[in-house]
Design goal:
alpha/beta; Rossmann fold; globular; coenzyme a biosynthesis; pantetheine-phosphate adenylyltransferase activity
Length: 163
């Protein structure tokens, strides 16, 4: 059985992320979407909120698990008994960073390989940062994220405006 991890912050999950998730599910037997709890970043959504949203928007995919994690990705891969890390590439500049990370991860854990998937062209410009910025100014994000994400973004932005 081939088990892979698709790690990320997913703050929030976008159609670009879902593109990689859906395509990965067709390649591997089991996909673990690892929701990173990164203390160096200040996410809009908590790790629990991000995991809940991801579970909602991927509920129709049968070979997927959503699991929050922190620490080293290779340690998480070892704990989950995953042999592959999947990373999405939007543009060539992503590749330089991702290649360095893949080589470092392979050095730390030779039994884990990294597989790169290029994002479908219609999502190559899309990032969570851009979506959050549009939402912060009250813009329409419906073409970038599923409805469940849009609803949660509106709630979060309205709560921030009241503070």
């Amino acid at each position: 059985m081939l088990r892979a991890i698709y790690p990320g912050s997913f703050d929030p999950v976008t159609y670009g992320h879902l593109d990689i998730i859906e395509r990965s599910c067709r390649i591997v037997d089991e996909l673990i979407v690892g929701v990173l709890n990164n203390n160096a970043k200040r996410p809009l959504f908590s790790v629990e909120e991000r995991a809940k949203i991801l579970k909602e928007v991927t509920k129709d995919l049968k070979n997927i698990k959503v699991v929050p994690f922190d620490g080293l990705l290779v340690d998480f891969a070892r704990q989950q008994e995953a042999k592959v890390i999947i990373r999405g590439l939007r543009m060539i500049t992503d590749f330089e960073y991702e290649l360095q990370m893949a080589q470092t991860n392979h050095k730390l854990e030779p039994g884990v390989d990294t597989m790169f998937l290029t994002t479908s062209i219609e999502y190559s410009y899309l990032s969570s940062t851009t979506v959050k910025e549009i939402a912060a100014f009250g813009g329409d994000v419906s073409q970038f994220v599923p409805e469940a994400v849009e609803v949660e973004l509106k709630k979060k932005m309205n709560a921030k405006r009241r503070v």
